[in-house]
Specification:
The chain is α+β, with helices and mostly antiparallel strands. 18% of the residues lie in helices and 33% in strands. It contains seven helices and 19 strands. Strands 1, 2, 3, 4, 5, 6, 7, 8, 11, 12, 14 and 17 form a twelve-stranded mixed β-sheet that branches. A hairpin with a 3-residue loop joins β18 and β19. The longest helix is centred in the first third of the chain and has 16 residues. It starts with a strand and ends in an 11-residue tail after the last strand. 41% of the residues are buried.
Length: 316
């Protein structure tokens, strides 16, 4: 299934759950759960499958179900988990690491080949966005960038998970656009902590358009990845380039640490999957489309730079 979280434009206060059955059609689910986290905590999958089968049979019989089958023009898709329990973003694509080494003149650390590395990203409700959301252009950057990534959500509680068992903990897969303010990011990272304001701002973590359950993803390590800017292909890659699998990442993170439904693990950028590697920079008004085989297209427009008269003044 392709599960989605959304809001009806006619009643924007409530978040709803649904199943994407076409690029422009969503079946609204009638469940006694509040969000996607509860959906997996309460194991709603079996009942949902039965419900979808019934609705699709009614549609095949020619029935009109306007209260259940919604058009994309009537809803706003959110991130599949509008507020994930946590966000860990890894860096597991070898070609991206090679490019970083080439650009910076620094060799890949031998430790990278021994254990997966990640940072914790912001899960503030303001930082998480979905399909068609407008990307915030922070008032402190001149080099905004996209990142062609994907990731998994955890679907059940686990700790000290083996690599062999780890796939059982994957609720599903989604596309991830890790928007980055490159100039401030690299300044922050020179201080030996994290990217900080290079990645922490409104609508900086974009996920969607849906969550694809493992039974429909096919081979997760042979999927084509494409990034387009204003319809032009900027990047093409494949998930086969991942040095670590999601199973290895899940097992690693779970050592002496309990994982819960709704936690997100990102892959990091595929090779040539960002403007920094290409030395090509997005501009206000650009439309970014990230596409991953068997998932779909995550589309977002770049907003205008924010005007902030109270902007932070650096010490001199």
């Amino acid at each position: 299934m392709k599960l989605v979280s959304f809001k009806k434009l006619s009643n924007y206060e409530l978040t709803k759950l649904g199943v994407l059955i076409a690029e422009d059609k969503v079946i609204e689910l009638d469940l006694e759960v509040q969000d996607m986290i509860q959906f997996f905590e309460q194991d709603c999958m079996e009942n949902t499958l039965k419900y979808i089968d019934t609705v699709e049979q009614q549609l095949n019989n020619g029935e009109d179900l306007p209260q259940i089958v919604l058009s994309a023009s009537d809803i706003q898709l959110l991130a599949p988990f509008p507020q994930p329990m946590s966000l860990r973003d890894f860096g597991v694509f070898k070609t991206h690491m090679d490019a970083a080494a080439r650009i910076t003149g620094k060799e890949i650390s031998p430790e990278w080949f021994k254990l997966p590395n990640y940072y914790r990203g912001s899960t503030s409700p303001a930082s998480i966005a979905g399909h068609e959301a407008v990307v915030t252009w922070p008032n402190y950057t001149e080099k905004l960038d996209f990142e062609l990534e994907w990731g998994v959500y955890i679907g059940k509680v686990g700790k000290n998970i083996s690599i062999e068992e780890a796939p059982e903990y994957i609720a599903g897969y989604t596309i991830y656009n890790d928007i980055s303010a490159r100039d401030i990011q690299f300044r922050h990272m020179s201080l030996s902590l994290g990217p900080a304001k290079g990645k922490d701002f409104d609508n900086s973590n974009i996920m969607g358009p849906c969550l694809v359950t493992p039974d429909e993803i096919g081979d997760p390590y042979n999927l084509k990845m494409t990034a387009r800017v204003n319809g032009e292909i900027w990047s093409e890659g494949n998930t086969s380039d991942m040095y670590y699998s999601f199973a290895e990442m899940i097992s690693f993170v779970s050592q002496s640490e309990t994982l819960f439904p709704g936690e997100f693990l990102g892959s990091g950028t595929v090779g040539k999957g960002c403007g920094w590697e290409l030395d090509r920079w997005i501009q206000p008004g650009d439309v970014i489309e990230l596409e991953i085989e068997n998932i779909g297209v995550l589309r977002n427009k770049i907003g205008e730079p924010e005007d902030n008269p109270a902007a932070w003044k650096e010490k001199v």
